[in-house]
UniProtKB/TrEMBL annotation:
Pfam families: Fer4_8. Residues 158-179, 211-242 form the 4Fe-4S ferredoxin-type domain. GO terms for molecular function: iron-sulfur cluster binding. Transmembrane segments: none annotated. This is 4Fe-4S ferredoxin-type domain-containing protein.
Amino acid sequence: KDKTDTERLVINPFIFNNLADFLTEIKGRVGIVAKGCDSRSIVSLIQDNKVVREDVVILGVPCPGLIDLAKIEELTAKDRDELDEITRQGEKVIAKVGGQKKEFAANQVLFDHCLACELPTPQEYDILLGEPRPPAPNMEASGKNIAGLKELTSAERWESWQNELSRCIRCYACRNVCPACFCQRCFVEETEPQWIMPMPRWQDNLIFQIVRNIHVAGRCTDCGECERVCPVNIPLRSLTREMYDIVGELF
Ligand code: SF4
Ligand code: SF4
Ligand code: SF4
């Protein structure tokens, strides 16, 4: 409630969270900082009558994209704890590791969903913090995982998803972080009827993800949060982005 608290606000390429996820839990008027994808999640919540437009003051941030630490770890062969500093300078990202500087093109280290971003500037806002950013989507780089899956035969793809979803521990982080997953009672918690078993068998994990994807179809803004938070690195965006594209084509 103290306005000097705003001095503690930080915006940088590591502030990942899509804050729209919290809007349905807050009563009364609230201010929210929103990147391009977050602002579209807010619009979707308003369209679903989950949020009243007049109750939110949107501070829009034209977004240069978020840095995927996993990609930097892979490129530097170092754990994120071993990296001294990471800075973005224009279209370059510089990682300091062991006293040495390593330079990468931003396209090498941004999250896949940011590589595909067509609307980095919020579409809905009350105050825009900064100049609008032109979109520069790189669909080929962003869609490598999905393209790889499409090259497989149906049997191979089935096996691949079986392997991936066998690792799911059903922590529900992917659901909880998603602004489009706003049901007060999720179907996975229903007991009459019980749609899926509580134990994380791959078959039930598959049903969870398929039904979740159907429920968020048309609401998902490709914010990438579900994939980012998965503790076992299941490539969930290969499902959500494919659904996003199908919905985009059909409607
Ligand atoms: S998809 Fe990425 S680049 Fe686009 S607004 Fe969201 S966080 Fe920013
Ligand atoms: S975040 Fe990952 S491990 Fe957790 S429920 Fe979702 S897919 Fe499963
Ligand atoms: S399904 Fe994933 S990518 Fe889509 S809105 Fe939810 S958290 Fe974001």
